[in-house]
Amino acid sequence: MPRPIVATIHLESMQHNLARARQCTPHAKAWGVVKANGYGHGLERAMRGFAAADGLALIEFDNAVRLRELGWTKPIMLLEGFFDASDLQTMAQYDLNGAVHCDEQIAWLEAARLPRKLNLHLKMNTGMNRLGFKPEAFAAAHARLRALDCVGEITMMTHFANADELAHPGLPIREQIRRFQLGTAGLPGARSLSNSAGVLQAGELADVLANDWVRPGIMLYGGTPGGKSAAEFGLQPTMTLSSEIIGIQDIQAGDMVGYGSRFRADGPMRVGVVACGYADGYPRHAPLGTPVLVDGVRTRLVGRVSMDMLTVDLTPVPQARVGSAVTLWGKGMPIDEVAEAAGTIGYELMCALAPRVRVIEG
Ligand SMILES: *Cc1c(COP(=O)(O)O)cnc(C)c1O
């Protein structure tokens, strides 16, 4: 028998979540973001789950090429663009769109001789200060691109820092939209602004926010980008990480559990040992009290997470035995709750699913 830990990917929920994104932004075309191996779900599964998307967007060249080899014929977009001049040949060969965010990239394009035109996404830095041209430099970059024979359509793009918090005191989304409108004034081409958080806020921002394309990621995988919970946003989990109890210890007051002996029992209790550890992608820093489901009953982590095992309090589940089902996250246990307890976000947990975990669909 294989080790009982397994990640179940719910393709129907992926379809449901994509439909939710379309409901939020009915006039925009949608890229399904499948970077980082489809946020840990597997590239090929993400391609099937988001078959109805208008295009797929990612960061990795090898996976972009793989999507073509797997038969994806709609647009593919590289969200960080290209990393040197030779990447342009790959983009032309496989018909890949890409972001353009700095002068060096434009210079590579100016020097390139390509067999076909590339559709590009010119990125503006509207305050996040990661990638992109400043609003005042944007029109000049746009003109340089437009002058090139190897450039097809130019989409104008920016990325929101705080779309989950409309009233952010430092950089409100409305300020980023204002800068984007200033920098793109009078320029032709489609616009692409919203990540999941922007898509989910589209109703609140209808007076200022217009997208021709949106770029939802985490919401498609049933995670919340912040603000409300995924369930409140009408999203369904797409990855359930489950395992089983493989051992039980009856301990007494004063007994300790695990490395560092960090947990000490107040009284007699049963501790369940679960076949799941940090080498499976479960966060090692998850503290005492992190929620876990055993036999459908909510209980808590006790003791440190080790490489291959973690330990849970079986007090609320007296019927638990070796072989009892455990849900670490997914259906019945929101990944965002586990992430929050562990001081991280659902994105990181999904992406960190380890290669040794068996993945099935269901
Ligand atoms: C990852 C990414 C997205 C998707 O972000 P989510 O918060 O997962 O929706 C959108 N746009 C760009 C440029 C990205 O890199």
From TrEMBL:
<keyword id="KW-0413">Isomerase</keyword>
<dbReference type="GO" id="GO:0030632">
    <property type="term" value="P:D-alanine biosynthetic process"/>
</dbReference>
<dbReference type="InterPro" id="IPR011079">
    <property type="entry name" value="Ala_racemase_C"/>
</dbReference>
<dbReference type="GO" id="GO:0005829">
    <property type="term" value="C:cytosol"/>
</dbReference>
<protein>
    <recommendedName>
        <fullName>Alanine racemase</fullName>
        <ecNumber>5.1.1.1</ecNumber>
    </recommendedName>
</protein>
<feature type="active site" description="Proton acceptor; specific for D-alanine">
    <location>
        <position position="35"/>
    </location>
</feature>
<feature type="binding site">
    <location>
        <position position="130"/>
    </location>
    <ligand>
        <name>substrate</name>
    </ligand>
</feature>
<dbReference type="GO" id="GO:0030170">
    <property type="term" value="F:pyridoxal phosphate binding"/>
</dbReference>
<dbReference type="Pfam" id="PF00842">
    <property type="entry name" value="Ala_racemase_C"/>
</dbReference>
<comment type="pathway">
    <text>Amino-acid biosynthesis; D-alanine biosynthesis; D-alanine from L-alanine: step 1/1.</text>
</comment>
<dbReference type="InterPro" id="IPR009006">
    <property type="entry name" value="Ala_racemase/Decarboxylase_C"/>
</dbReference>
<feature type="modified residue" description="N6-(pyridoxal phosphate)lysine">
    <location>
        <position position="35"/>
    </location>
</feature>
<dbReference type="Pfam" id="PF01168">
    <property type="entry name" value="Ala_racemase_N"/>
</dbReference>
<keyword id="KW-0663">Pyridoxal phosphate</keyword>
<feature type="domain" description="Alanine racemase C-terminal">
    <location>
        <begin position="238"/>
        <end position="362"/>
    </location>
</feature>
<dbReference type="GO" id="GO:0008784">
    <property type="term" value="F:alanine racemase activity"/>
</dbReference>
<dbReference type="InterPro" id="IPR029066">
    <property type="entry name" value="PLP-binding_barrel"/>
</dbReference>
<feature type="active site" description="Proton acceptor; specific for L-alanine">
    <location>
        <position position="259"/>
    </location>
</feature>
<comment type="similarity">
    <text>Belongs to the alanine racemase family.</text>
</comment>
<dbReference type="InterPro" id="IPR001608">
    <property type="entry name" value="Ala_racemase_N"/>
</dbReference>
<feature type="binding site">
    <location>
        <position position="307"/>
    </location>
    <ligand>
        <name>substrate</name>
    </ligand>
</feature>
<dbReference type="InterPro" id="IPR020622">
    <property type="entry name" value="Ala_racemase_pyridoxalP-BS"/>
</dbReference>
<dbReference type="InterPro" id="IPR000821">
    <property type="entry name" value="Ala_racemase"/>
</dbReference>
<comment type="function">
    <text>Catalyzes the interconversion of L-alanine and D-alanine. May also act on other amino acids.</text>
</comment>
